[in-house]
Amino acid sequence: MEIEAPLDGRRRIADVLLTSDAGNKMAIEVQYSGLTTAEWKERTAAYKALGITVVWIWGNIGAFAPRRTRVLDVHREILRRRMPIIWINPAHERIAWAGLEDDYPRLLPANVRRHGFWFGSLDDLELRATGLFPPGFIDARIASKTTAMRPRRPRLSRGFERKVDQIASGRAR
């Protein structure tokens, strides 16, 4: 694992770079500053061109704070690609995530495309070859090829959800 790893002749710096024993690379980008959909697409494509899987994690404060602002265009693009949106609160080692509800094991009609919002511990994230995922996430790109994938529904932390609401509204102490 490398922190602030230089890539592509130092033109790009990955916040965190993981390299497997087989040489596969995954960059984790923690995004606190504003980022347009076009910038996100360009950066994601640049990582792909280098043969690096990129995982985007959004900061819990600022422009991308969960439940603080409307769903942004960049988040809509991520959902359109059937990927989860993950926020991190590093101080409390907590995560929040959003995704299309049918990417999680729920009893919903196949045509439902609502998005849900969940909370958990940083330790709940699952490292897979295709990225970093919240618990229970079914990668639709793979699940369509494998019908046996049905992980259990993630447990939610209601107390943490209330705390996030308080922080977002400025009522936290």
UniProtKB/TrEMBL annotation:
UniProt-listed InterPro entries: CoiA_nuc
Instruction: Domain (Competence protein CoiA nuclease-like): give its ranges.
Output: 2-60
Official protein name in the record: Competence protein CoiA nuclease-like domain-containing protein
